């Protein structure tokens, strides 16, 4: 809403007000907190509280900002915009330094949290504690409540941030876009209706549920959080309960990648339990996946899922996986080309058998480098790296992203979209990726057949690949990306317009023409020809 007050000012009066506000703000932008130099920066004056929110149209409700900050602010309310800008900086720094989404952990670190152990004793149904590390030597006590169904013991404590940690085991999620709504809700003085949950582990209190509510409160300046704290909990049970909340009960919006991480945790908890029950050492893996399923027979369907999800998680999140930087786990990113859904339905579905459990010991042939699961993980990662190197790295530009690419091409607003970027974008579409990865699988099967090796179609990566096979795969990927259709901009409003189904692209690859008989390729894809060196005729 336009300001009648600002519109009434002369140019000189506006400049004087700018200087007056800057002096109050110590010559720093109200939103980003960085210095403002009037000789170098363009500025804006804006309402701190918007007129639409009953803010006053007068000097005490004005602040000066960089013009760029004001244009890119994430909220009409400057106080909220300033808070969200701080969070954005934390998120960007985390992505740069740790190559992952920021979570409560990074926010706590930024706001001087997660510094001290929680010192406590129990006396009957009372828990006694003190915050002596921050100079508060008062001995507090709170009642311990026992849940009559689960038998878990909990208590309620207002905990200074210095004693709060993020639970990366049970809640590995990063911060999503819902945080802005929570910040606005709490900024209105509306109360938090559901407390965040924490647990005590090795004298540290770790929040495993309600991290977004905790983050919102911290951003708004709270110095302590009221938590429901589980004392000596069953970690396996808490993890399973938290997982069920996001799947079976649909209480929280867990994306599939987070669910796999949680199932990975549950898998290793089951291994630990099996070892304990059979008096095995923690490094003794002489039992098989099948044995695990048989032992936990009342929960065998879940155990199978934990095993396969653990394999898929190990592949996706491996440090050496170069493709992971191009996979969107949140479901809303506009900077990276491969949705997690597309990655799951193509790479993970085609190359990882979701039903096959191994009857060989978990450590079978590990010392020889021939362990089937270890091979499956490492070789799938090698495939991902080949694809990343040939299609994405230094080719797909995150600053251009994926938003409305074909529309920009159709409108002729595509000067900044390079051919390499367009190729990567188009080859990343789920229905397209699924089909061309099918040919990669054919390349592998063809190699095994021609060399006379026995193989299982559903567990190809559990057998060691020869160097020549890796060369064949790389040649195929290079020759595939060199096909003219990927950079043909005239196809933006035909072949690449809208979302096509899997069969549409299956027909194109097999016949060279679309289902309505429009030529797309010069000839059908012949994977035997395409494994030859790209320089060959």
TrEMBL record:
GO terms for molecular function: endonuclease activity. Coiled coil: none annotated. InterPro entries: His-Me_finger_sf (IPR044925), HNH (IPR002711), HNH_nuc (IPR003615). Keywords: Endonuclease, Hydrolase, Nuclease. Residues 18-71 form the HNH nuclease domain. This is HNH endonuclease.
């Amino acid at each position: 809403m336009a300001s009648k007050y600002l519109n009434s000012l002369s140019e000189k009066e506006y400049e004087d007000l700018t200087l007056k506000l800057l002096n109050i703000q110590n010559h720093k932008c109200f939103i980003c907190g960085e210095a403002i130099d009037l000789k170098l920066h363009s500025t804006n004056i804006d309402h701190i509280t918007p007129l639409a929110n009953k803010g006053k149209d007068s000097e005490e409700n004005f602040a000066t900002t960089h013009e760029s900050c004001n244009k890119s602010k994430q909220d009409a309310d400057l106080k909220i915009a300033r808070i969200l800008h701080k969070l954005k900086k934390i998120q960007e720094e985390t992505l740069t330094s740790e190559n992952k989404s920021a979570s409560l952990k990074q926010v706590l670190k930024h706001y001087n949290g997660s510094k001290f152990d929680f010192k406590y004793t129990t006396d009957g149904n009372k828990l006694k504690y003190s915050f002596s590390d921050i100079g508060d030597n008062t001995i507090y006590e709170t009642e311990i409540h026992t849940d009559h169904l689960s038998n878990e013991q909990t208590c309620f404590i207002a905990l200074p941030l210095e004693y709060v940690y993020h639970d990366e085991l049970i809640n590995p999620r990063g911060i999503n876009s819902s945080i802005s709504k929570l910040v606005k809700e709490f900024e209105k003085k509306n109360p938090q209706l559901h407390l965040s949950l924490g647990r005590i582990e090795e004298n540290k209190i770790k929040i495993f549920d309600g991290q977004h509510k905790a983050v919102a409160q911290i951003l708004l300046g709270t110095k302590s959080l009221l938590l429901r704290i589980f004392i000596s909990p069953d970690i396996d049970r808490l993890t399973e309960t938290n997982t069920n909340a996001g799947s079976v009960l649909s209480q929280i919006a867990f994306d599939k990648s987070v669910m796999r991480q949680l199932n990975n945790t549950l898998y290793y908890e089951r291994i630990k339990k099996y070892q304990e029950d059979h008096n095995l050492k923690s490094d003794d893996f002489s039992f098989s996946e099948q044995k695990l399923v048989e032992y936990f027979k009342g929960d065998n369907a879940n155990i199978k899922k934990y095993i396969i999800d653990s394999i898929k998680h190990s592949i996706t999140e491996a440090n050496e996986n170069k493709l992971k930087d191009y996979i969107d786990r949140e479901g809303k990113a506009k900077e990276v080309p491969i949705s997690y859904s597309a990655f799951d339905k193509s790479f993970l579905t085609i190359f990882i058998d979701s039903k096959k459990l191994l009857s060989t010991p978990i450590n079978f042939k590990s010392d020889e480098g021939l362990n089937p699961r270890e091979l499956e993980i490492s070789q799938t990662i090698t495939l991902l790296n080949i694809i990343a190197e040939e299609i994405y790295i230094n080719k797909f530009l995150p600053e251009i992203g994926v938003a409305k690419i074909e529309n920009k091409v159709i409108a002729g607003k595509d000067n900044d979209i390079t051919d390499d970027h367009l190729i990567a974008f188009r080859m990343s579409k789920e229905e397209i990726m699924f089909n061309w990865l099918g040919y990669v699988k054919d390349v592998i099967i063809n190699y095994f057949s021609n060399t006379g090796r026995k193989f299982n179609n559903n567990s190809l990566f559990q057998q060691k690949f020869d160097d020549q096979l890796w060369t064949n795969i790389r040649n195929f990927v290079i020759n595939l990306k060199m096909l003219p259709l990927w950079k043909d901009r005239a196809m933006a409003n035909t072949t690449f317009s809208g979302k096509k189904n899997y069969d549409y692209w299956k027909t194109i690859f097999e016949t060279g023409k679309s289902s309505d008989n429009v030529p797309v390729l010069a000839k059908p894809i012949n994977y035997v020809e395409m494994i030859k060196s790209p320089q060959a005729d």
